[in-house]
């Protein structure tokens, strides 16, 4: 009985690790280039400066950790509760909102993400 419980625990741990590895791979391939182009200048690219709002978008781990205002930047399975998604979506669709990224006054130099880019972030967060 103990062996069966141990095997069950090990297989569950392996599945979780594979899932995390898959997320990291998808992040690097699909999401990191979007954030590098549009968000990292203010949120973590320059390691000599603190990222704006304490929110560093240069790694999946730092995004998950969140910033000063939010305990986590991603709520897995729920993009609408994820600050990363909310801020990007508001940047395009609600530019006057306080969460909008980039802020309205900076959108001339730093345009908001496109609908397609926001859809990729949403799909990434909601993937199981």
Topology at a glance:
Blueprint: H1 2-38, H2 60-65, H3 83-93, H4 115-126
Helix pairs in contact: 1-4, 3-4
Tags for this entry?
mainly alpha; 4 helices; single chain; disordered N terminus
Tell me what the structure shows.
The model is unreliable at 1-18 (pLDDT under 50). The protein has one domain (20-126). The protein has 128 residues and is mainly alpha-helical. The protein has helices at 2-38, 60-65, 83-93, 115-126. The longest helix is centred in the first third of the chain and has 37 residues, at 2-38. It is globular, with a radius of gyration of 17 Å.
Domain module tally = 1
Order of helices and strands: HHHH
Mean pLDDT: 84
- Secondary structure class reads mainly alpha
Distance between the termini: 31 Å
* Gyration radius, rounded: 17 Å
User: What shape does the CA trace take?
Assistant: globular
**Percentage of residues in DSSP E strands:** under 5%
The largest sheet is: none
